[in-house]
Design a protein that fits this description.
This protein is mainly alpha-helical. Among the domains are: about 10-155, Tetratricopeptide repeat domain (Serine Threonine Protein Phosphatase 5, Tetratricopeptide repeat, Alpha Horseshoe), CATH 1.25.40; about 320-368, no CATH class. Helices cover about 80% and strands about 0% of the residues. It has 18 helices and no strands. It has helices spanning about 1-60, 65-80, 85-95, 100-115, 120-135, 140-150, 155-170, 175-185, 190-205, 210-230, 230-245, 250-260, 265-280, 285-295, 300-315, 320-330, 335-350, 355-365. Helix 2 (about 65-80) packs antiparallel against helix 3 (about 85-95) and helix 17 runs antiparallel to helix 18. The chain is elongated.
């Protein structure tokens, strides 16, 4: 009986020992796995840190024309993360500085191939590819890449400058002047080099026959885009240049008046709009905008006088009747205002102007 109990005891001890060592082995396995995971994470973070360090250091020393040392650092970065475009872009830039345009092209093309659709620096790659072709004398290719860069980032001042210079090289002086002028609008104050270059180019073309009328219209279209984007100060700069190129441009003065009104400069707006009407006495939209400017200054009698002149030119324009109605409402004469609202509605229905019909209906309901 004692021996039987002893055997049971041995079996229990054996089971406990086996359980203890199996748990210890499993714990050791878990520990090894965790250590490997931590080691892998640390290694990746270290590599990312080194990648950024190599790129930043290469940028710093390339400013002192230490190009070979910069390239060594960039190749170290590429060996760490060969599928990341950033180091290839920086390598391409250094090759451009060295005037090794074929080598620059290869690295920039590699960066472009590696860049994903959401890559945040794609316009930088395209700009530098444009530079490569510009300095190689392939201006058509330069224009292609520079325009693509500007499509991604419409305020890319240096891309606009070299786009203008590329157009200049193929003797398209109107587009050259326009793009270099735009680049000067966007060039930041601390970038004196490009400001001086842009100014020198523009000054050299002043007074030359570079298709001033067409160029004036191009400036106008650019300005209208800025008005749509509510970038009124930039629009005003372009519109003044448009007028400079064509002093008899009624549309230019009209758009300038609009831009000034949007920023609350009503006296400047009035001057521009009156000039527009002087050039084209039948410019109905200029009369309406002029009326708006005087209305903003609470000069209602002057506004009425201007709108009545507009009505003599175009008595089927619902906007004029609508504006007249709003002026009489401002003066407290709701009865006359309603008569003008009715006439505005009739003209809007006749012209199938749905937006105007909705606007008039809302105003009439408020007047009742």
């Amino acid at each position: 009986m004692k021996r039987k109990n002893f055997n049971y005891l041995l079996i229990i001890v054996f089971i406990l020992v086996f359980w203890f060592y199996s748990k210890k082995s499993l714990a050791a396995q878990y520990t090894d796995d965790a250590t490997a995971f931590i080691s892998e994470q640390t290694s990746k973070e270290l590599s990312e840190f080194l990648y950024i360090k190599y790129i930043n250091k290469s940028s710093d020393i390339s400013r002192y024309q230490l190009y070979d040392e910069a390239k060594v650092l960039l190749w170290k970065a590429i060996n760490l993360f060969p599928s990341n475009p950033d180091a290839y872009v920086n390598l391409g830039v250094i090759h451009i500085k060295e005037k090794s345009f074929d080598a620059a092209n290869r690295n920039l093309r590699k960066a472009l191939d590696l860049s994903q659709p959401n890559y945040s620096k794609k316009e930088i790659i395209l700009y530098n590819l444009g530079l490569c072709f510009y300095f190689k004398g392939d201006y058509s290719k330069a224009i292609q890449y520079l325009e693509e860069a500007i499509m991604i980032y419409p305020k890319f001042d240096q891309a606009m400058f070299y786009l203008g210079m590329s157009y200049d090289k193929i003797e398209n002086y109107a587009d050259a002047y326009l793009n270099i002028f735009k680049s000067r609008v966007f060039i930041k104050d601390n970038n004196f080099d490009y400001k001086i270059k842009a100014k020198a180019y523009l000054d050299s073309k002043r007074g030359l026959n570079i298709g001033d009328i067409v160029l004036s219209e191009n400036f106008l279209e650019e300005a209208k885009n800025f008005i749509e984007k509510k970038e009124f100060n930039k629009a005003i700069i372009l519109l003044n240049e448009s007028i400079f190129l064509n002093l008899k441009f009624a549309e230019g003065y009209y758009q300038l008046g609009r831009a000034y009104s949007y920023i609350g400069c009503f006296q400047e707006s009035i001057r521009a709009l009156e000039k527009s009407i002087d050039i084209n006495p039948e410019f109905v939209e200029a009369y309406i905008e002029l009326g708006n400017a005087f209305q903003a200054l609470n000069k209602f009698d002057r506004t009425l006088n201007i709108l009545e002149k507009a009505l003599l030119i175009d008595n089927n324009n619902p906007k004029i009747y609508y504006k007249l109605a709003t002026i009489y409402l401002s003066k407290g004469n709701s009865k006359v205002a309603e008569q003008y609202f009715i006439q505005a509605q009739e003209k809007a229905v006749l012209g199938k102007n749905l937006d105007m019909i909705v606007k008039i209906n809302i105003a009439r309901k408020r007047n009742r």
